[in-house]
Amino acid sequence: MDFSKFTKEFTRRDFFRLAAAGIAASTVSKVAMARLPEIVVGETADTQPLLIPNTGRPYLPVTTLNGWSLPWRMNNNVKEFHLVAEPVKRELAPGMVANLWGYNGQSPGPTIEVVEGDRVRLFVTNRLPEVTSIHWHGQRLPNGMDGVSGLTQAPIEPGKTYVYEFEAKRAGTFMYHPHADEMTQMAMGMMGSWITHPKNPKLHQVDRDFIFLLNSYDIDPGSYTPKVNTMLDFNLWTFNSRVFPGIAPLVAKKNDKVRIRVGNLTMTNHPIHLHGHEFEVTGTDGGWVPKSARWPEVTTDIAVGQMRAIEFVADALGDWSLHCHKSHHTMNAMGHNVPTLIGVSQQDISKQFSKLVPEYMSMGGRGMADMTEMAEMMPMPLPENTLPMMSGRGQFGNIDMGGMFTVLKVRDNIASNNVDPGHYKHPKGSLAYELADDAAAPEVAKQASPVVAKPAIELNVRKPQMDHKGMEH
Ligand SMILES: [Cu+2]
Q1: Which of 53, 92, 274, 402 could form a disulfide with 332 if both were Cys (CB 3.0 to 4.6 A apart)?
Q2: What's the 302 CA to ligand 1 centre distance in angstroms?
Q3: Taken in order 166, 84, 215, 79, is the CA torsion positive or negative?
Q4: Radius of gyration (Cα) for the chain, nearest Å?
Q5: How far is it, in rounded angstroms, from Cα 11 to Cα 376?
Q6: What does the alpha-carbon distance between residue 185 and residue 331 come to, in Å, rounded to a whole number?
């Protein structure tokens, strides 16, 4: 198999950089070392370089979006991993940090990568204030290793370490999460990805392999800790506990075969939509989909507790959106009980209200897109530790997104699969453009559209130094 592409990207120096920047091993005593693998901790929400296997069977590693893979210790042919369940601080996007629970310093926890047929031993240490356990979602394993607190094992008490051991029997994509006080622990961010690579590396081979989990939080504006009783009305919809514009782009070289593996551990389904390409669902957490049973899609719905692997050839250059198609899932925290006021001028009302209620946010009179500009202009100051409802800037202006949204960047040449190559340069003649002369618009359209009939609104509202008199009509 061809590792040259990866080894070129991932040198020994990269490993030390990784050690310096993101992943740090805590010092443990020699006695402890003998019993337990060292604890490796993720210290940043940045996507980390590929973890190239230096022991055990070879495989093509995955890129965990805004995450990392957990190094292991080989002990008499058994791969030993050490997961530590603990409270963590996770940056959801620049400007907002959340108090979550996770594993090894981050939420989600690190990705576990093993190879079909590997004997795996997982040490799970509980540093939470309550009991926990880990369920290895989707795996074939002895019943007593299934991690269901009360049913297949006693709960792991705070301060205690449990050992799970089984053979990674089936290649595929899996997840791990607690099976003790699940409602609290998953609402707090406890989950991680697991990949069992095929023993035959020629099977299911791709050039770029990405993974992330869908998760969600309900964190009141101005606060830091999720509300764990929320059943449906979450206000932060995340890929690997990140919201746009904090989610890393997925970077591919033109004509790379790309796989994106997505698991859903929220409380609702997410139709994940990719622009500019058709893909096939090639795998679920139940295994690989036979070739004859695949069909082309541009959106695939991922239900709760499901995982989908999609594959496509990245043959279209550009910056392509990859997002949940539920429009409320591409926004950050807002009040959902705002009335629809499209067509109503209420800029002045909004200003009056925000003097009394700093968090007050009314829906724009023309739609919600003004929110991005308004947040930038700061007429309504956001509470601390709160992200704008919609934000992100592209090369042409505001993107007006939040939540479950990121970008697939396809380029002729890329340095690495996790270094942002910047904005796409559109070839001449391939970019949508503004019609220069308004007179060219058909007469009937002018009469039919109230927006065209009132150009004064359009001109006045877009100005950053807004003249509120201009809003009256
Ligand atoms: Cu969604």
Answers
A1: 402
A2: 9
A3: negative
A4: 24
A5: 41
A6: 24
Sheet with 250-253, strands from edge to edge, namely 250-253, 405-411, 318-324, 270-274, 299-302
Please give the distance, rounded to the nearest whole angstrom, from the Cα atom of residue 307 to the centre of ligand 1: 14
- Distance in angstroms (rounded) separating the CA atoms of residues 13 and 21: 12
Spatial CA neighbour of 336 closest among 237, 425, 471: 237
Helix residue ranges, H only, 22-118: 30-35
pTM: 0.81
Bridge pairing between strands 96-103 and 78-93:
antiparallel
CA proximity to 256, closest of 209, 211, 207: 207
**Ligand 1 center to residue 326 CA distance, Å?**
5
Ligand 1 center from residue 453 Cα (angstroms) = 36
CB 322 within 8 A of CB 310: no
Q: Per residue in 38-60, pLDDT tens?
A: 999 999 999 999 999 988 999 99
CA of 325 to the centre of ligand 1 (A): 6
Cβ-in-10-Å burial (0-12, 13-18, 19+) of 303 comes to exposed
| Ligand 1: centre distance to CA 108 (Å) | 18
Q: What are the chain's domains?
A: 4-271 (2.60.40.420)
Distance 469 CA to ligand 1 centre (A): 39
Tell me how far the alpha carbon of residue 270 lies from the centroid of ligand 1, in angstroms. Answer: 4
Q: For the chain, percent helix, then strand, then coil, each to nearest 5?
A: 15, 35, 50
